[in-house]
């Protein structure tokens, strides 16, 4: 039975961190693996909000580190589901850095991940269709659909 649709905003999750010295590399900027773990966690919560089921990470399609994040900066991750297949969901994560003392803000990282909804026996289960509302959400949906279709080929 088809489930009622949900919008990208229905699944939005925001996470906040302060970058500490033990999360940095030898140059005083964020260690990529720490940011990846925060991205996976925030994206997983968005996928779970959409599906209302257990989920697993199936793939990380892309991760682009655009600007370094320095020790002491605030890190804001925003995740939302941007595309759904039958049982899979593509999630976009945008990572923003902010230094309120120096009035610096920037887009530090972007990532696209695919999660699959599963039942208690780990079998994939259908998810609610996504209903993009705005032009920007429709554009993200189309781009994600192209990634989904190219992977299927
Ligand atoms: C992801 C997983 C559930 C898919 O199971 P499967 O038996 O291959 O399932 P199917 O072939 O029926 O595919 C189910 C969905 O997964 C998607 N999928 C499978 N492999 C994928 C991959 N590598 N990347 C993206 N999506 C993938 C399929 O496209 C399909 O999506 P759709 O239903 O929307 O079209 C299974 O491979 C798995 O459990 N992997 C391990 C996950 C894991 O341990 N993650 C890390 C910790 S959470």
List cofactors, ions and other ligands.
Answer: coenzyme A
Alpha-beta content class: alpha+beta
Mean pLDDT: 97
Distance between the termini: 27 Å
Largest sheet: 5 strands, antiparallel
β-strand amount = 35-45%
Count of individual beta strands? 5
CATH top level is Alpha Beta
Helix content: 10-25%
The whole-angstrom Rg is: 16 Å
The figure for the number of domains is 1
Give me the side-by-side strand order of the main sheet: 1-3-4-5-2
Per DSSP, the total helix count is: 2
- What's the CATH superfamily, by name? Hotdog Thioesterase
CATH architecture: Roll
SSE run = EHEEEEH
* Overall spatial form: elongated
**CATH structural fold name:** Thiol Ester Dehydrase, Chain A
